[in-house]
Amino acid sequence: MTSGIHHITLIARKVQANIDFYVGFLGMRLVKRTGGYEDANQLHLFYGDAEGSPGSLVTFLMWEDGGRGRVGHGQPSEIAFAIRPESIGFWLTRALQFNIATSGPAQEFGEPVLRLKDPDGVIVKLVGTEAVSGAPPWSTRDIPAEDAIRRLRGATILTEKPEESVRFLTSHFGYTETGATDAIRRLTSTSGDTIDVRNATGFWTSAPGTGTIDHIAFRAPDRAAVERVHDDLKRDGAGAINAHDRKYFYSLYVREPGGSLYELASDVPGFTVDEPKETLGTELFVPAHFSAAREEMLLAMPQFALPGEPRLTERDLPFVHRFYHPDVLDDRTFMLLHGSGANETQLLHLAHQVDREATLVGIRGRSNEEGTPRWFRRYSPTTFDQKDVRSEAEAFAAFVEGARDGYRIDLEKTVFIGYSNGANLLVALMLLHPGLIRNVVLMRSMLVLDDVPPPDLSGTKVLLLTGKHDSYGDFAPRLARTGTDLTSVELDMGHEIGAPDIEAIQQWLQDKGL
Fold first, then answer.
1. How confident is the model at residue 1, as a pLDDT?
2. What's the CA gap between 224 and 267, in Å, rounded?
3. Among 464, 458, 411, 418, which residue's Cα sits nearest to residue 437?
């Protein structure tokens, strides 16, 4: 049976920084981009050698601006790539050019090792070794083939049960113990790659999140081999085992006794099943069971540029935000503020249906008092922390001004669309900072500020969309005395939003010449 690492999967917080490191700095090839199999809105990227072959692959689940994890026992802690021993100097020089801190080279099990960290803080080792071989490496304009990353050298796992962790790997995944130090036991596969089992007794436990390694996938030649190991694991009482057809490989998932998640993935059919080798990684593929929601998935996934492609430089602004640029652009921008418990992707599909050529900017509220994003604290469904409302409105005003200047956004052609809690912040923003935003759509909004004298909002166009059956309808903001160009539409709906809102917004944009 083939043994060794098939791929290693990590979780990243920023897709563009991840691309710039693994493709731009390390020179790996982007060999596949897909939607997530469990999460329809999750981008999954695969990097590897020239052919995307098993043993060369690292993959990333993109939790854009997601919560950070914690490295601890019950989890892998390091990944290692193989380079030629003579290439250590090349990579030291390249790290200096890219302003990436390194330590080493130091000897580990008789091999020179450079240590560095990726943008999420994951330890990445470059190991000078001839112990692994495989398909041709992927070379780039500034990384010649002789210095390129060849494939994976291995990984390190942290465990409080080193004896049991070692036994699990040697019994089920074809590894043999080949070396040891005081804290590490080295296991080697028939492919030549290694798993270092580090005794982490007394260390803190791991927590999933960005900046962590989700799992290590080992190799099996085909589905039949995966199923045989599945039977062996069941006989040995290995616990919960999940099997899945991932299109490019058939795999099972199981946790080893120390807590790390392992996958066993077949070498076949591979990534060329739906994309020729020459164009690997150029098209986004969506799992078949999500095909009906393909458009929504594409809108929710973060966009990125490969090295050398045009890109939008992200600005450091007070709120997490996400751009969506359609292939064909008009001069309209929608700024989108989600409802309670959602995030910056909630209104992307609705806004795209309003205008498929508009630039979309989804923004995330900063209040997490109730465990999910909101725009400000509340005491009850209809009473709010007045100080926090004012503070967040002030911060959002700074965001608007920063986005205007940093991204060169024309606010006269920008429409702010808020739903529920997001619409409530827009109402507060208009009352506290009159004139800053000129075109506003409020869906299921309410007045959350107490004792605010009506300002002069002349020149501000507002579309107020209320639901006939909305239990919050009685709390809708009264803006008639502010001088706004107000259009109020009652829809035969409750607090939910949908197609009637889209039609009403389109008609309003047409009527107002926006």
1. 59
2. 11
3. 411
